[in-house]
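We store amino acids, tokens; thus:
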Amino acid sequence: MLLVAAPAARPVRGAEVPMTNPLLLPWSGPYGGVPPFDAVKVEHLAPALERAMAAQLAAVDAIATSPEPPTFENTLAALERSGRALDRVLAVYDVYSSTLSTPEFQAVEREVAPRLAAFRDRITQNERLFARIEAVYATRDRSCRTPEQRRLAWLHHTNFSRAGARLDPAAKARVAAINARLAALFTAFGQNVLADEESMLLLDDEQALAGLPASVGEAMSAAAEARGQRGKWAVLNTRSAVEPFLTYSARRDLRERVWRTFVLRGDLGGAHDNKAAVAEILRLRAERARLLGYPTHAHWRLEDQMAGTPERALALMEAVWPAAVARVREEVADMQAIADRERAGITIEPWDYRCYAEKVRKARYDLDEDEVKPYLQLERLREGMFWVAGELLDLHFTPAQGVPVYHPDVRVWEVRDGRGRLVGLWYFDPYAREGKRSGAWMSAYRNQERFEEEITTIVSNNANFVKGKPGEPVLVSWTDAQTLFHEFGHALHGLSSSVAYPSLSGTSVARDYVEFPSQLLERWLATPEVLGRFARHVKTGAPIPAALVARIERAARFNQGFETVEYLAAALVDMKLHLAGERPIDPAAFERDALAALGMPREIVMRHRLPQFQHLFADDGYSAGYYAYLWADTLAADAYEAFLEAKGPYDREVARRLREHVFSAGNTVDPAEAYRAFRGRDAGIGALMRRRGFPEPAQAPSPKS
């Protein structure tokens, strides 16, 4: 559930650009202009980036060398508008990187990634520019007219300081060299994982489909046919394809093959092996942290986050870990008992976990996920998400007209508030395909702003569902349905934004806060209002039976041991890796030893093993920050109880406070203050533990600043 928020892309003003490159033209068309996906080619990208970077550097130089005394308007506001052309180009470039990663694009990406890093360093290391920012920040109580302006002054001053603006020339040069090398390593890491994800298990014997629901087999057939293998069945090496196979397949030998292929991405030796890249990334991050004045990379990363310190993040994770491991022991015992009753003659292994967990669910709760799946049609769930957006945030979706897209699978909706005012566009790209990275995410092509004029946002949601045969509805699992709502929560966060300055807009908030709105929105999937209206049987159209909904509710805490340990192991190893400082790291040994020290159950592996952990190693974004999902879920669990304490999930007063203080506020206020304004107090860990069915620890940390 990775969030990718591209830099805001906004219309450029007054630039003279060559007419042959559509990326260097202002966005035209409806809705305040839209990305020209129908006109862009790979060969446009590098030249456009070069021109746009040069334009921003010229604008920054003009700010830095201005003879006028520094003010908010001639320094910070000018800086906000300085990169409009580059923002626009990067929005399209990032779409190629995540969804259209052909060999031709990958060559461009390898070329430009280090240059983009060097470009950013030239700005943050500009001494005269930083002196002006520092002057505005020092006088912010006088030079800034509004609280939002003061927040923007704090943000720019903090970002420049943390990037090394105060370093001496030699240290600045070394940091820049490290950043350029990291950019190249990040690119190679992501491309290596993508290459391994292009593999698949191809089956040509219908007997190999034993145990699989018809919908899963049909999706595998469609996937094979789309890859020129008509009459066969393909298990793609993506989570959305692998997890259903592991859940239902009766062929234990094939489950093991599929599982191993998936967990060994980036760890197969040869040209696409990522272990050496991981080791070098860790070493460079540690050196950079020391140069910047921090004990470790983790201390540097968390300084401006809601957690503040690695110790506070670890305290939350370690408070949850023992209860989660204890629950796994119970889950494994239940699964082993079923295997023994079946006389399977096996000991539960990682490739058995999902399969036997499903058997336990069916035995204990009379709930078979295959019984639920026919009611979870992708398109109806999308309609359900739209309905929730209207009820909760007064946002309303209708199909957009005249908007070019980058692939035929992509569709676009315009979004308006209850007064009919346009607030943005929502792009939806739901299906897996070659060149598209796995997982699900949200992107912002353009951030909302209004400091010069009202500019509406453009956001997208992206997923990797296996596309069915033409005209056939796509059915998704309950977990995938939750992921849909999660990523839509990110989109609603962006669409609800109502701020002046783009750097503070939408999802541009602390990493351990940005997951709060998205994890909160997951709760609305299970509400009777959504299931009753939008969970309709794929063949009969009948609404999901109330008795089945009741069984879903009773099983809500089922398998929480697995889900928590799978995630939390990855988050704990991430933090421990980045607290290790400058000592050399062997990724395989570190992963093995750290998990052993934690007491990791042998029946589970980390959700993302290190050689494929793109949250950590495809950029800096979630490095020493994967804990953010747990931190944010602590907020989400507590926030949802605010609705339950009132009139329920659709209580209008609680929704109003949520919209005002969380969804629309962006980064204009400190996140802890924003949460207190919504809830009236800080969040505690109690709601999180209750939701997962774990006992609350006696000494429980609280996610507050």
Q: What stands out?
A: Residues 200-271 form one domain.
